[in-house]
Design brief:
Blueprint: H1 13-21, H2 25-38, H3 43-60, H4 64-70
Helix pairs in contact: 1-2, 2-3
Length: 74
């Protein structure tokens, strides 16, 4: 019996938290976004999405050392 990729996926906050513990912020955010769609009144899910989006945005900023290294000093 073959199972389609998206068939029988279990989407829970626990799974998202496991992804977070493993460092997979994007996957955790994807799950929380799906949970928000299923339960738009859930304040916890919405806050977690906002926090994860902020974390991803912060990670995309160039670090101070990268700025220093790219600055011409001579």
């Amino acid at each position: 019996m073959m199972i389609e990729k998206n068939e029988n996926k279990i989407i829970t906050a626990t799974l998202a938290d496991i992804y977070l513990q493993q460092g997979y912020i994007e996957k955790a955010l994807e799950i929380y976004e799906k949970l928000v769609k299923k339960d738009p009144d859930n304040d916890f899910y919405r806050k977690r999405c906002a926090a994860l989006k902020k974390e991803l945005k912060e990670r995309q900023r160039p670090g101070i050392f990268k700025k220093i290294l790219t600055k011409k000093i001579w």
